[in-house]
Each structure stands twice: as C-alpha cells, then as structure tokens.
Amino acid sequence: MSDSRYQERLTVLEAALYAAGRPVDIEGLKLVVQTKSEKIIRKLVSELSIRYQTRKSALEVQMLPGNRAVMRLKEEFDSSVKKFTDRPLLSTGPLRTLSYVAYHQPVEQMKVVEDRGSHVYSHLRLMEEMGLITRKRMDNRGFMIETTRYFSEYFGFGYDPLKSKIQLRQMFNSLKIHKMDNGEEKSDSSELLSDVFSETPLGDPFDAF
C-alpha cells in the first residue's frame, strides 16, 4: 500500500469514528475504508490511537471487545466538560419505555404495548434508530426486543442480563420508581429518570462510553 493511500484510509477512518460518536464494528469500517482486510483496519486504528496519544489529545481512539473501535473523550476530562453535555438523551416518555425494555428483556413488543400503551411504537422506532435496542421478528410475526451492547456501554451497565437487571432495579429503587411490571411506574419527580440518562448526549463525538 502506498503512503498516500495509507494516509487517505487513515483520514477516512478518523472521520468515520468522529462522525459516528459511538463504537463502530470492524465490518462497518471495512466498508468505509474500502478494504476486506480486518488486519488493515486494526493497523489503522492502532496508528490513529498512537497519533492521538502522541499529540496528548483530550480524545482517544481504542479497540473495544466485540471487534469494535471508538473515538471518545478521555475519562479524565468528563467532569470538566459535563456542563456542556448536560442535556437529556431522551424525553421522559421514551426513557420510561427504554427502562421497561431494559428491565424485562428479552420482551415481546406486544407486551410492551399492552403495558405501556400504543404510543410506545414511536418510542421503539426512535430507540432502534439510535442503536439502543434491536427488534427481531418472531415466527408469529411479532417482534422480540432487547437492548444493545451500545446501550450497556452508554449507560454503564454490564453485559450480563442478570447483573444488568440488578443494576436497573437498584437505580429504580434509588429514584423511587415503582411498578416496573406495567406502564404505571411512578417516581417522586418526573425529571429524576431523565437526569440519570443525561450524562452525555447521544451522537456527540466527545461521548464517554
């Protein structure tokens, strides 16, 4: 590979990670960089990571488990820039639907609609577009819903479903949110749940995952 071609691919990779604002899998990066080689992608990510370290940037580029790469803000700068990122990820309604799905997953879409109401269809479409959930069609033509790995990384939950459920329950208890078995969960303040999910804005290249 010529030096100019290598630099071009490195620049494209950097642009892709910046624009994504979230972890991107190697297969997706192959398409952007126009290569079939995972080895080349890993080499480019490694080179980009070294360059950001060398220039002592506030950003870092890293490979993550699951064959994914990410550009993100270094953890040491989180508190310094929090005031610039302190806006809600989702409004209260979608947040409650997301919480319901996360706690009960895998859960049938029909069950979510029964418990939360028909208005959740728009919530689910939005969350799917944001990469927070997946909807897989079942044999009966319904959908089974689960949160994604990105959801776990973004909100700081583990990948183990049981541990995640415990973490969610602890969070709900601390916020005094009740009745997670139906669509009538209540809290002492409608803003509490929104506050928990508003540490960083989705899609911002300076996210801390």
Write the layout of secondary structure elements.
Blueprint: H1 3-20, E1 24-25, H2 26-33, H3 38-54, E2 59-64, E3 68-73, H4 78-85, H5 92-104, E4 107-108, H6 109-116, H7 120-129, E5 133-137, E6 143-147, H8 149-155, H9 161-174, H10 192-196
Antiparallel strand pairs: 1-3, 2-3, 4-6, 5-6
Helix pairs in contact: 1-3, 5-7, 5-9
Q: Could you please describe the fold and organization of this structure?
A:
The protein is built from ten helices and six strands. The protein has 209 residues and is an alpha+beta fold. It folds into two domains: 3-83, Arc Repressor Mutant, subunit A, CATH 1.10.10.10; 92-195, Winged helix-like DNA-binding domain superfamily/Winged helix DNA-binding domain (Arc Repressor Mutant, subunit A). The chain has a three-stranded antiparallel sheet with strand order 1-3-2. It has a three-stranded antiparallel sheet with strand order 4-6-5. The model is unreliable at 175-179 and 181-209 (pLDDT under 50).
